[in-house]
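Question thread 4412

I'm putting together a teaching handout and wanted feedback from people who do this every day. The idea is simple: show students a protein as raw sequence, then show them the structure tokens that encode its fold, then repeat with a second protein so they can compare. Below is the first pair exactly as I plan to print it.
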Amino acid sequence: MINAVREAEMTGGKPGETTGTDHDYIVRCLAGETDDFRHLVTRYQRSVFAYLRGRLRDPDRAQEAVQETFVRAFFNLAKLKKRESFFPWLIGIAGHVARELERHERRDRVASAEYLEQSRMPRTGPRWADWPLEAAVSSLPCALREVILLRFYSDFSCLEISRLLNLPLGTVTKRLSRAYFKIRKRIGN
């Protein structure tokens, strides 16, 4: 923590704030200064967590997926073609990790269902089912959930989401509008 405060004082920023560009940190990591990757983790950890939390619907699994995402990003950093597009690339990795975890979960669920049928044990619902907003967001189709998570959990503007997802701005605003409607309908407001 003391080093973070000193670094902030030297750069004129707040403790923990990263002031370099993604491109700068990536170049330094590839040049052997692997400790600079921590700046990228600090910058994007919350956004990636929010994205994965919405996709996986479980904070523990999302945290595990965040760690796996950053590990894969670190070891594949040399494969990144456009260094100024680090965050979209990172979200792509997070999406792959989420799909893998969902695939494993489906396999586990099938095995569990077979076991439960054999043992006749009652099934329990998900822990988040008591939280109407979270349940409503989780029930959205992936394309709508993705823009909601980026807009409200990661605090990106519509224009930033448009650039990040490589979609027209009108498509982003339309998806947000549809997501709002579905959430209101689900919650009952």
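The second pair follows. I'd like the answer to focus on this one:
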Amino acid sequence: MSIAEHWGRIVTWLHVQAPATYAGLREGAGYTELAAARTELGLTIPPALKDWWSVCGGARGEVLPPNFHPYAPAEAVASRRIWLEVNAGVPDSWMAGNTAGSPAKRFHRLWVPIAGDGADNDLVVDLRPGPAKACVVLWRNAVHEVRKPQWLSLIAMVDSVATGLERNRTVLGYRAKVRDGELHWASVKRG
């Protein structure tokens, strides 16, 4: 299945189970918006990221666990700009690796934010070279770190979330809950 098909599964679930979250979904980005993002980022946008933004133009409210709302391309560009400015003075020695998916203690210029939690954390697509190129990592700004990939690809992320919603399964240790028509991801306590 494609990103569009997996995203369609999420949209269908939200429409039925979490209508308030569904109402906050934005239309996918068009050619002009994608071209502007490519120019602003100064990077080649991989096909999977184009596919993601073509179907998901951002959202108000939690869609991705544990509490991330997807960014529109312009929001991703703005978030990346902020992180690069904030981390401009951080020494290069803090960078643990230049291989996709490797730990880091500084926001890397080859990362593209795709979702944020409103509390200084972003899910980012890691475009550093290597076998895990285009994996999805969690940038935790408060502690300046990325540990390991959350998902090995965007398609894996969207499939994982769709499956978690449809089958009431945990995703990264969180399970979907709906309150007042809004999707929330609740931590599943492990014994």
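Top answer:
Good format. For the second protein you could add a caption like this: Residues 3-17 form the longest helix (15 residues). The first strand starts at residue 69 and ends at 70.
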